[in-house]
Design brief:
The chain is mainly beta and about 750 residues long. It has a single domain (about 10-750), classed as TonB-dependent receptor, beta-barrel domain (Maltoporin, Chain A, Beta Barrel), CATH 2.40.170. The chain has five helices and 46 strands. It has a 22-stranded antiparallel barrel. A five-stranded mixed β-sheet has the order 4-10-11-8-9, with no helix packed on it. Strands 5-6-7 form a three-stranded antiparallel β-sheet, with no helix packed on it. The N and C termini lie far apart (about 60 Å).
Length: about 750
């Protein structure tokens, strides 16, 4: 096996500071954090896995999965035109292709059930107890396509104590208001229930549309969740049902670069004059757009989990975890981002996901602990895409006396079925030595069928017959390692794990499945060999906790993607990608009422071998590519969307103002520079940047807290994605991050 010569390290900060709560005084211990990273409750210091835990208090002020990069250096958020093209990245590896039969390498699990691929996984936060960011392959215990890492989101369970709580939040810059409410308590002696709801309305968008006179890229969302917990004798039944609706005005892009060395005829003839006439200043700080179509995204999501557990007389437990999820999404987008129609388009997704997991768990006591299980996953995803336009503009181009109209439509159905048998065993040899080993055997099949019809000249033209293609595969995932406890407050571990991600199929409009040999559209599975060496320890007085993890990962057949700036995504299997790194984390209650935490991550992710990579427009113009569809050699280059150095620093302090409890928390996040697009076009370069956040709160009564908060207080300009603008060679767009935000929040609990 090839191992990259640059070893990198990963470490994770695993304890969270408490926002809005009195913090431990000098000499008190850091709060112990319990996680389920190994499918049973354990102290985070006993888990031989690189993970970061974000508690409910740390998540205050964050809206959804897209915001986590601000507090977790392990994560990178990949922005996109709508949720269907957005993704997450861990250790330099993730996803981001706008292709429904192409799954990301980072999975999101909510209450033990997978949320599915692509935008279906970008869930909002409400009434969340904690989020576990698990780095590296997690497929032995969690299964489906977890080759780079996963998010394990755990929502609050019902309790027997009656409680009503809520929060009102208002942010001034984007005129965003949010309300949260929770009702919790007993129904009978054995049954507890919890209802949690939220609603968000954003009045001002991230971009000003100077053509339509509107505010673009803003969100409106609401959701409700019911959880019940029943327990009697040796039987327990838990249920979670949630519904979420999103009505977002999304999808507009800011133009940040016009490269005259790459600019094509259409760009110089149409786009450049339109930009000049609008008064827009092209650049990193541009927050204006000139598209003329109404862009929006609507989604409805249902997520359901049923868990049954029987404890046997022997102490063993049998569990059944049934998951059901639907995600219905519709979006409309001004593809050309231009005041007159060249191209506009719509996209719909209709996903249904069903999963069933049976577990057989040993008792928690004793030297031998094990988990045996069976897993079934079935996902159906129907997609339809419509591209149309070329009206007034085409009249100018082609000299027609009346406006022309073209339209192309392609539909596809994606079916994925996954079966797995797995087992994981931990054995305590002595007080100091523990070994663990796990194995998952799987079989997966993916099928795609659909057709392409239309006369839109910028895309394949014709009435193509229905095509179908499938790929099935059998493989394995596993892990093996040792833990060593030199003292009662320290744990060292070393492990090897093998990850797997199933085959993908390029069913975008330019995919070979429609107009060529369907088998050429199939990407081989992606596998990873991962070595980790970690340290987790606390001081003897438990006021300090720190972690360090070294990881060395080698991906074979990495499924890479890049937008080609015109017809769709180009997908390739890269030969070898290595991601090696070092992260260090420390947190402690260093003085009475307060403390500090710091997390530093160095991730060196690069293509060791990637011949025939997608060509960038810059490389094509420079003549360094074989042709316009492939041929670029990216071997030895840093992977896109992977800043080498990332860190977060946070400090908190609790004090009194008269008789009132008060606190302050300050956070700073910094990311190194990197290239954002998959073809490594230098015009998609993102400078290094840092975000400063702060929160000050005071308890006005025993039950009510008022807080003033700010995010990105230094008003940093940055982008969550940069890419080729469709149709306009030499023009590059971005989805900018949020500028300075100042808000106020009132929280109450009764």
């Amino acid at each position: 096996m090839m191992v990259h010569h640059k070893a990198t390290v990963l470490a994770v900060a695993v304890f969270a500071g408490f926002i809005g709560q009195p913090l431990p005084s000098f000499g008190q211990a850091v709060e112990e954090v319990v996680v389920t990273a190994q499918r049973r409750e354990q102290s985070v210091l006993d888990v031989p896995v690189s993970l970061e835990v974000l508690t409910e208090e740390e998540l205050v002020g964050l809206s959804d999965v897209r915001d986590l990069y601000q507090v977790s250096p392990s994560l990178v958020y990949v922005g996109g035109v709508a949720s269907s093209t957005q993704a997450l990245n861990i250790r330099g590896v993730g996803g981001g292709a706008h292709v429904s039969a192409f799954e990301p390498s980072v999975t999101v699990v909510v209450d033990q059930v997978s949320t599915g691929p692509g935008g279906a996984a970008l869930v909002d936060f409400w009434d969340v107890a904690r989020i576990e960011v698990l780095n590296g392959p997690q497929g032995t215990l969690f299964g489906k396509n977890v080759s780079a890492g996963m998010l394990n989101i755990v929502t609050n369970d019902p309790t027997s104590e009656f409680e009503i709580s809520g929060a009102l939040n208002y942010e001034a810059e984007y005129e965003e208001s949010r309300i949260d409410a929770v009702i919790n308590g007993p129904i009978t002696d054995n049954l507890n229930a919890r209802v949690a709801a939220y609603g968000v309305d954003q009045g001002k968008g991230l971009l000003d549309n100077v053509v339509r006179g509107s505010e673009d890229n803003k969100k409106g969302r609401y959701g409700v969740r019911l959880k019940t917990a029943y327990e009697q004798d040796s039987f327990a039944f838990n249920m979670a049902l949630s519904f979420e609706r999103q009505d977002n005005e999304c999808c507009s892009r800011a133009i940040t670069v016009i490269d005259p060395m790459v600019a094509g005829a259409l760009t110089n003839l149409f786009l450049v004059p339109a930009i000049g006439a609008s008064g827009i200043t092209v650049g990193e700080a541009n927050t204006q757009t000139i598209n003329d179509s109404n862009a929006f995204e609507d989604t409805e999501t249902v997520h359901a989990v049923w868990e049954l557990a029987w404890e046997l007389d022997s102490g063993h437990t049998i569990k059944s975890i049934t998951g059901y999820r639907t995600w219905d999404q519709a979006e409309w987008n001004d593809v050309d981002a231009y005041p007159n129609d060249f191209i506009r388009g719509g996209l719909t997704h209709d996903m249904t996901l069903f999963s069933e997991e049976i577990q057989f768990l040993s008792p928690d006591d004793g030297p031998l602990q094990y988990l045996l299980g069976f897993y079934y996953y079935n996902m159906d995803l129907d997609e339809q895409t419509i591209l149309e336009g070329c009206m007034t503009v085409c009249t100018i181009l082609f000299g027609s006396p009346t406006p022309l109209f073209f339209r192309s439509t392609w539909t596809s159905k994606v079916e994925v079925e996954n079966l797995g048998l797995f087992g994981d065993v931990t054995y305590k040899f002595s007080d100091q030595w523990t070994g663990f080993v796990g194995l998952r055997l799987l079989r997966e099949e993916i099928k795609v069928r659909g057709d392409l019809d239309g006369n839109f000249p910028f895309w394949p033209v014709g009435d193509f017959p229905e095509q179908s293609v499938s790929k099935d595969d059998s493989d394995w995932m596993g892990r093996i390692g040792l833990q060593y406890y030199p003292t009662d407050t320290a744990m060292l571990y070393g492990s090897y794990s093998r990850g797997y991600k199933g085959a993908g199929i390029n069913n975008s409009i330019n995919g070979q499945i429609w107009t060529g040999d369907p088998q050429e559209a199939v990407l081989d599975p992606e596998t990873v060999d991962n070595f980790e060496f970690g340290l987790k320890m606390t001081s003897h007085d438990n006021r300090l906790a720190w972690t360090a993890t070294l990881f060395i990962s080698e991906f074979k057949g990495f499924q890479a993607s890049a937008f080609d700036g015109s017809s769709g995504f180009i997908l390739r299997n890269a030969g070898v990608l290595t991601s090696n790194g070092l992260e260090l984390g420390v947190e402690g209650n260093l003085w009475e009422g307060g403390g500090l935490s710091a997390n530093v991550a160095y991730v060196d992710a690069e293509f060791d071998e990637f011949l025939g990579a997608p060509c960038s427009k810059t490389a094509i113009a420079a003549g360094t590519c074989v042709d316009a569809t492939g041929g670029q050699d990216l071997s030895g280059q840093q992977v896109n969307r992977s800043p080498k150095l990332r860190y977060t620093i946070a400090g908190h302090h609790a004090f009194n103002i008269g008789n009132a409890d008060a606190y302050v928390r300050v956070e700073y996040m910094w990311r190194d520079d990197n290239i954002l697009d998959g073809d490594l076009d230098p015009n998609t370069f993102q400078d290094a940047y840092g975000l400063l956040n702060a929160r000050f709160g005071v308890g006005v009564t025993e039950n009510v807290e008022v807080a003033l908060w700010g995010r990105n207080l230094t008003d940093e300009v940055y982008s969550n994605a940069k890419f080729d603008m469709p149709l306009w060679d030499g023009a590059y767009g971005s989805y900018p991050g949020r500028l300075r935000q100042i808000g106020v929040e009132v929280r109450a609990t009764f």
